Amino acid sequence: MEEILITRLFPEEISEQLGLEPFRGRQIFRWTHEKHVFDIQKMTDLSKDLRNALEKKALFCQTEIVHIQESTQSGTKKVLFRLRDNQTIESVIIPHRRRVTFCLSTQVGCPLKCAFCATGKAGFKRNLNAGEIVEQALHLLSLIDLGNRTPNIVYMGMGEPFWNYDELVRSIKLIMHPLGVNIGARKITVSTAGDIKGIVKFADENWQVRLSISLHAANDTLRSRLVPLNRKYPLDKLAEALHQYQQKTDRMITFEYVLLSGVNDSLKHAQELFDYAKQFKCTVNLIPWNPVSDIPFSPPAQETCNSFLEFLTQNGLNATLRQERGQDIQAACGQLRRIFPDS
Question: Which CATH class is domain 63-339?
């Protein structure tokens, strides 16, 4: 008999698959998604007999926290999860003033092998199911007191989200569900390295979830070196897909651009980025590289980062420079998992 994975299901699916009345499905959904309780024996509005019966039929949690690192500089927390098959994934809590952002993973490892990314060096293992994705957010919520606020969610952790499209979409809808975390679509962002098929499908979704593109270079030679997916979907093809996306949705796009010293941080590169980005309604997020041992890059000097940003903004582009958060705890994607492999 196939296991019933509770955190992957909507309330009506819980009722249907467990053979319960609709209100019971809503009760169980609220316990897991709103109250972050995974132990059915603590779901006290269910009878003891029902709890015991359901415990044998369903799996209420697929993840466990095995390690937490917290930055004394920024308050950033990086969390390592172990899955039931002993694979490990990472999530991050990023506080910034009154805003808190959760960075979630969609795959175990990553198949894209971007040159500067620790996740890609570890290889790809498998996709996460929607429950494993959602549980990251639910665990993170239990680690921080947000009061009545909800976090921002970015699908920018391990993996290429659009290569796990169906489970990605299901997880977003679960996180948005009014009986659960109830996060608004505009507080959720999906980041892709430029998977065109995914971008085209994403444009047809009936919501206002945001789209981010991991660009990192605006000429094909350099981008193909940094982001191998560019060899399949070069910049002109990516632009076509993004124009189609904006024609359908009229939504802002964010370009993520990791600054690598001596690689993509010159004013020539800034000009290329400006020329590419100006054709879209967009903002650019500049990110100084977070060093990873045995990957031969380094972050630029602060003066170089400031000059790059100044060039973009003086030419009229909406751009920001992200301040370093979590470098002291190795918060770049994949770093913690490399320290604690298969914990």
Answer: alpha beta
